[in-house]
């Protein structure tokens, strides 16, 4: 529903011109910390999704399993659950010959989540997940900026139609692609957040570090509500990244930071990738991420409902305290990259700039 300012029933006009009560903004105003969910991809694989299959097709082919996945995180205490639409742009769906099913698959994912939330009787934010296109922008690659914007708009409008409260641009590597995704998503007139994967020595694989990310956040305000980091190479690195983001937040406390760490370090066991994080590690990570300055905390690849239960309990039972030092983080969660440490010392020079094509899944 969109109403004119003089018809505003909440009496609140937000900075992006949305003048109806929005659950994402409401809960951010009400709660100091919002707990997000865990992984989508790795949990769907655990439920039988086959490697190479598009998780998004399950929104139509296996809706009960997608619902069970959502329900597991709602029951675990998540305030925010992401839709199963990470690869829901036409670029990604094209790999499965489903490029003409963007609206159908994104709406289905969102409607299933809305229904599960309604059943739960809890207030849970529907976050419409938007992942990278998987393409490289011209002139290095073939994706034209206007086509990318159109693809992100197409997905965003479908997520809105299904009932998303916020558009959740995630696992990004390139500043340019975030800009294009935000530009596309703005058409849906919903709050927008973005997170980037700082998985390469404290930077994204395209060389984006904490200072670049926060500069982009500034540039994109007021069109983005929050920013941060997700996925990557473990919980220690994500907490260090939050410290570095905070260090570069030019407006001090105003930037709302997001942390969504993988459940430990990926390891190959019997030909499969498994994550070595325990509920205890994820509980410690959640508390440290909050102390470092994150207001929205969740897990990424490998994070199951069991881990989120432990995170909920830890956040609810532990008072906020001083930000951790890098030594604290390393002692409790594991190693931090030299690149992240350098950024913590204020060294922002791009040391490595790796441009390569890599498709991700969650
Ligand atoms: Zn991930």
Walkthrough of the structure:
By secondary structure, the protein is α/β, with parallel strands linked by helices. It has a single domain (33-344), classed as Alpha-Beta Barrel (TIM Barrel). It is 41% helix and 14% strand. It is built from 14 helices and 10 strands. The strands form 2 sheets. An 8-stranded parallel β-sheet has the order 1-10-7-6-5-4-3-2. Helix 9 crosses helix 10 (235-247), helix 10 (235-247) runs parallel beside helix 11 (279-292) and helix 10 packs parallel to helix 14. It binds zinc ion (ZN). Zinc ion (ZN) binds next to loops.
Tell me briefly what this model is.
With about 350 residues, this protein is α/β, with parallel strands linked by helices. It is about 40% helix and about 15% strand. It has one domain (about 35-345): Alpha-Beta Barrel (TIM Barrel), CATH 3.20.20.330.
Total count of domains: 1
CATH topology: TIM Barrel
Coarse shape: globular
CATH superfamily: Homocysteine-binding-like domain
The CATH architecture would be: Alpha-Beta Barrel
Total count of strands: 10
Estimate the strand proportion.
Answer: 5-15%
Determine the N-to-C terminus distance: 32 Å
Derived structural class = alpha/beta
Radius of gyration: 19 Å
* Arrangement of strands in the largest sheet: 1-10-7-6-5-4-3-2
Low-confidence stretches: 1-15, 351-357
Q: How many helical stretches?
A: 14
Report helical residue fraction: 40-55%
Order of helix and strand elements from N to C terminus: HEHHHEHHEHEHEHEHEEEHEHHH
Q: What compounds are bound to the protein?
A: zinc ion
The CATH class, by name, is Alpha Beta
Largest sheet: 8 strands, parallel
